[in-house]
């Protein structure tokens, strides 16, 4: 990947003369069956541009309370786009973070002078805080079709859309078919140092390109970064199943340990959300204390709440390292 980055041809992407960025954007748009794509520095910026391109200040976004857009993006939807958020719950859904048409229907308020205008519905696939779970295809189609019929634009936060496609055994086009825009990260499972894409129709991407400049996200010789993306699509896409298998193996091993108390069968992709047992919290401390303890043992992980730790499998880990990690965790 580093060699591909060093050897690629570059231009000035703000002036649309960087051939490598253009190649990455065209290739990605094709993979998702959309007209256009825009290369941006981060998933957060891709999501914010999707909001900016499809809403106006004062509009309402409908999404899940555990969505990355609401939870982890610094409130950009409000601070920069001037939108509010109304939550759609997952009470009647098969998995956390997955929203049915019925729950979306309950959240959409009628047109009324008192209410903000509902404009955008966003979903996350895979759903990070839901445990890396994948939207079932039938629910995806039904909920997004319902949103479109209700006059909403639909955006998919597809930071890990590649993992969703791998887990379901479907192509990226099917996952993008019921969404107007989709963001996809190169810097997670695909292993690039930097970069995400926003994908959609030409008009929306043209607006997003303008807003990207406004936000300071126009990069000049960005081909060095786009080359990493092209390399990852060639070499790292087809291997994601290995990460999923290693996550399943890790989850099964952790679930056997007295320090954890969770159902490993809920792991669907490369994220393992492992809930600590009461005993582990009483004996040592909450997930933040455990995160430090694990880090000291050479295991990097993330405390996602007081009692749950997220472990991620990725392309830099092989089977021997997973065995080693399981052994080290088990000995704590
Ligand atoms: C679901 C989801 N969306 C968006 C992002 C944002 O990506 P970035 O860190 O590149 O801004 C992340 C990052 O973890 C994520 O998990």
Mind explaining what this structure looks like?
It is built from 15 helices and 10 strands. With 332 residues, the protein is α/β, with parallel strands linked by helices. The chain has 2 domains: 2-235, Type I PLP-dependent aspartate aminotransferase-like (Major domain) (Aspartate Aminotransferase, domain 2); 240-330, Alpha-Beta Complex (Aspartate Aminotransferase, domain 1). The protein has a 7-stranded mixed beta sheet, sandwiched between helices. Strands 8-10-9 form a 3-stranded antiparallel beta sheet, covered by helices on one side. Helix 3 packs across helix 10, helix 6 packs parallel to helix 7 (137-149) and helix 12 runs parallel beside helix 15. The radius of gyration is 20 Å and the shape is globular. The structure holds pyridoxal-5'-phosphate. The site of pyridoxal-5'-phosphate has 12 residues, from helix 3. Pyridoxal-5'-phosphate binds at residues 42-44, 47, 68, 124, 128, 157, 159, 185, 187, 196.
């Amino acid at each position: 990947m580093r060699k591909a980055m060093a050897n690629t041809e570059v231009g000035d992407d703000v002036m649309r003369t960087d051939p490598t960025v253009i190649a990455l954007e065209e290739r990605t748009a094709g993979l998702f069956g959309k007209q256009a794509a825009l290369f941006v520095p981060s998933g957060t910026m891709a999501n914010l541009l999707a909001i900016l391109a499809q809403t106006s200040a004062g509009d309402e976004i409908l999404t899940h309370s555990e969505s990355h857009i609401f939870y982890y993006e610094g409130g950009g939807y409000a601070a920069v786009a001037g939108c509010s958020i109304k939550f759609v719950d997952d009470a009647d859904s098969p998995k956390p973070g997955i929203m049915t048409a019925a729950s979306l229907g309950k959240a959409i308020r009628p047109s009324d002078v008192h209410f903000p205008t509902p404009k955008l519905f966003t979903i996350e696939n895979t759903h990070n805080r839901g445990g890396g779970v994948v939207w079932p295809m039938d629910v995806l189609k039904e909920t997004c079709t319902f949103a479109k019929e209700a006059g909403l634009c639909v955006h998919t936060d597809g930071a890990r859309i590649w993992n969703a496609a791998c887990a379901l055994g479907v192509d990226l086009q099917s996952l993008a078919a019921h969404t107007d825009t989709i963001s996809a990260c190169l810097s997670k499972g695909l292993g690039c140092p930097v970069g995400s894409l926003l994908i959609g129709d030409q008009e929306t991407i043209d607006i997003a390109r303008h807003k990207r400049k406004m936000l300071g996200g126009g990069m000049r010789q960005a081909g060095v970064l786009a080359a990493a993306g092209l390399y990852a699509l060639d070499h790292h896409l087809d291997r994601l199943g290995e990460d999923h298998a290693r996550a399943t193996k890790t989850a099964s091993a952790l679930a056997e340990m007295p320090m954890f108390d969770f159902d490993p069968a809920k792991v669907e992709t490369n994220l393992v959300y492992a809930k600590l047992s009461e005993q582990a919290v009483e004996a040592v401390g909450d997930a933040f204390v455990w995160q430090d303890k694990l880090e000291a043992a050479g295991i990097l992980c993330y405390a996602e709440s007081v009692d749950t730790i997220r472990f991620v499998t990725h392309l830099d880990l092989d089977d021997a390292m997973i065995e080693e990690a399981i052994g080290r965790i088990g000995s704590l």
